[in-house]
Amino acid sequence: MVRQAALQNLVISWAKKAPRYIWGGALCGVLAGPAVAGPLGNACLRSDIAGVTTTLCLCIDDVAEKTLDRRDQRRAARFFADPDTAHDVRQSDNDSDAAFWQRYAAFSKAAADSCKKG
Questions:
Q1: Fewer CB within 10 Å, N- or C-terminus of the chain?
Q2: If you compute the radius of gyration of the chain from its CA atoms, what whole number of angstroms results?
Q3: Cβ proximity of 56 and 90 under 8 Å
Q4: Structural domain that includes position 101
């Protein structure tokens, strides 16, 4: 249940403006373990969010590889370092931002569904 909550904070909360105390140290530390090839997996591994594991990051990376192109993955990975960016994109009136947000929301749902821990 704790891991499921961590996943929800990690993936689903991106859709909202996350509190700075959750994201303040994002990308500061590197967890021990194998490198993940994708931008989202690497951003996940580098985060210091409680409950994040290599397994969870690998799962998120796998879902990202299946649902987002590389450019969208890099853009979404920036949300770890600057969560305000996610809020700005979500609230934007720009058509390309809106299209990205639809793809990102689909990724978030797929990651939440696929990466649940029991």
A1: C
A2: 13
A3: no
A4: 2-114
Distance CA 20, CA 37 (A): 27
Total tally of structural domains belonging to the chain: 1
Q: How far apart are CA 2 and CA 101, in angstroms?
A: 27
Counted residue by residue, the chain has a size of 118
Contact, 93 vs 42, CB < 8 A?
Answer: no
Report how far residue 3's alpha carbon sits from residue 116's, in angstroms, rounded to the nearest whole number: 8
Q: What is the mean pLDDT of residues 27-34?
A: 40
* pLDDT > 70 fraction of the chain, expressed in percent and rounded: 67
63-111 residue pLDDT tens: 999 999 999 999 999 988 788 899 999 999 999 999 999 999 999 999 9
